[in-house]
């Protein structure tokens, strides 16, 4: 197991995180830790993945990015079992469908900003035990200040203000982490998975499919595998998507 590349994915039971777990674990030489806030959803995801053509291995970890106690237990558990993390994919996120006002802002920032930052910081010491560490923040083109302020960009069209603000903050965090960690050979990326099917926007078919516009999250998973496997290393420190990179 310690020979395998150890990949931890937060929010791995659903959508982009699940598709990424499936894509990476379809390759030999990877152990994917499915980090999920609801352990029963994590175990169900693992059972589903075990019916696919797996060449890597899987484990499940309880991890709620909004709960400091859960984060610290998860770090201890991974430290004891593996002694390191080679790839940390900070994927858990929300648009907090159905909420409004202060509740909406609080939930979105609690998960997408505070959670992403605190869980990433907590796992950085284990990443630094890797001979080839990689840290990927799952962001969104909607968080690009450059695209939002460009009237010719399809990504400038409203709404999603609170979600955009959270991903803009996540992008700033990623820039800071890249500057801090690059001399320790950590490859740090922000990555936009594209508009893909998931329950991010809600549970109805209309929300899952983004009114029929959403693509297949397996395409996001393949692009993330390219980063993990080192095929996008020249873009370290950038805000990448499958076919290039975005302005911050
Ligand atoms: N889908 C898209 O079109 C799209 C586009 C751009 C960016 N993204 C980004 O992609 C990432 C994944 O989203 P998705 O589209 O795959 O949505 P999703 O299907 O709703 O998956 C989100 C995952 O995050 C988990 N999560 C939420 N809050 C958490 C917490 N406090 N602690 C731990 N896990 C938590 C969810 O767990 P539960 O199942 O327990 O709720 C779920 O596993 C997000 O960062 C999102 O912003 C998605």
UniProtKB/TrEMBL annotation:
Q: Which GO terms describe its cellular component?
A: cytoplasm
Q: Which GO terms describe its biological process?
A: secondary metabolic process
- Superkingdom is Eukaryota
Q: Which InterPro entries match?
A: Fungal_SecMetab_SDRs, NAD(P)-bd_dom_sf, SDR_fam
One GO MF term, please?
oxidoreductase activity
Record Pfam families: adh_short
Q: Which PANTHER family match?
A: CHAIN DEHYDROGENASE, PUTATIVE (AFU_ORTHOLOGUE AFUA_5G01530)-RELATED (PTHR43544:SF32), SHORT-CHAIN DEHYDROGENASE/REDUCTASE (PTHR43544)
Member of which family? Belongs to the short-chain dehydrogenases/reductases (SDR) family.
Q: What is this protein called?
A: Uncharacterized protein
């Amino acid at each position: 197991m310690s020979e395998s590349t150890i990949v931890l994915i937060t929010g791995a039971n659903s959508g982009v995180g699940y598709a990424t777990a499936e894509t990476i674990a379809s390759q030999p030489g990877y152990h994917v830790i499915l980090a999920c806030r609801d352990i029963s959803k994590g175990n169900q995801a693992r059972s589903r993945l075990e019916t696919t053509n797996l060449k890597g291995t899987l484990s499940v970890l309880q991890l709620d990015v909004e709960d400091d106690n859960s984060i610290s237990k998860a770090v201890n558990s991974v430290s004891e079992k593996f002694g390191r993390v080679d790839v940390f994919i900070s994927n858990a996120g929300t648009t907090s469908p159905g909420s409004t006002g202060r509740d909406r802002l609080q939930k979105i920032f609690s998960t997408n900003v505070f959670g992403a930052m605190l869980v990433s910081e907590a796992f950085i010491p284990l990443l630094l035990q890797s001979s080839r560490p990689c840290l990927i923040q799952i962001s969104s083109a909607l968080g690009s200040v450059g695209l939002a302020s460009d009237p010719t960009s399809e990504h400038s069209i409203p709404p999603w203000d609170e979600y955009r603000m959270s991903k803009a903050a996540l992008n700033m965090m990623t820039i800071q982490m890249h500057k801090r960690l690059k001399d320790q050979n950590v490859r740090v990326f922000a990555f936009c998975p594209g508009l893909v099917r998931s329950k991010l926007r809600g549970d109805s078919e209309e929300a899952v499919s983004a009114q029929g516009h959403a693509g297949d999250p397996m395409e996001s998973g393949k692009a993330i595998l390219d980063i993990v496997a080192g095929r996008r290393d020249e873009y370290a420190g950038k805000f990448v998507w499958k076919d290039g990179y975005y302005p911050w």
